[in-house]
Design goal:
Order of helices and strands: HEEEEEEHEHEEEH
Number of strands: 10
Largest sheet: 8 strands, mixed
Helix content: 25-40%
Oligomer: single chain
Shape: globular
Strand order of the largest sheet: 1-2-3-10-9-6-7-8
Length: 214
Amino acid sequence: MSLSRARVRRRSRRSTPGRAVLLTAVALASAVTLTACGGSDGAGKSSGSAGGNYVTGPGGISTVARADRTEAPKLDGETVDGATLDTTTLKGKVVVLNVWGSWCPPCRAEAPYFANVSKDLAASGQEVAFVGLNTRDNSKQNAASFEETYGITYPSLFDPDGKLMLRFPKGTLNPNAIPSTIVLDKEGKIAARTLAAVNEEQLRSMIDPLLAEK
């Protein structure tokens, strides 16, 4: 073997660990991207969450039987427009909680549906309150621009560090993806959740059964 070939092979062997580290870093970055702005479309039944059994449909929407629902945590603080909000004051209404960020493409895709459904239900006098949880935005200005662009008229709590999302008890249907939507029943209990962007039909399918509950 010539001296030049031996040097080439030695350099190749030395570079292998570096390539492996690089590939691992790329794979981890891809995984973080998927979980940071995406959701799950799994279907089936699980136990031990939301205080009992829940069923996840083919569209990725999980629902909890009325007897098995868990109390939602108190979510309070300053809103994007500078006001204050406490979600526990909304008991008696169906509450739609939408986790979003102005930087998130799926959030932009679903925003028009949230704007339309919230306005339609308000105009018809339905007992529904929409609340956004704005997260991972560096400034309120970005969030406010998003709301103006998509016609979002309901308030959003400003939660840049995601601390409000962490208030959901372990083992409940919590908002562990962006976007996420959680719907509370009139008693303030977690009744439905999706970890993916929704269209108008899917959003209404989460709200309407709870409005019908007596």
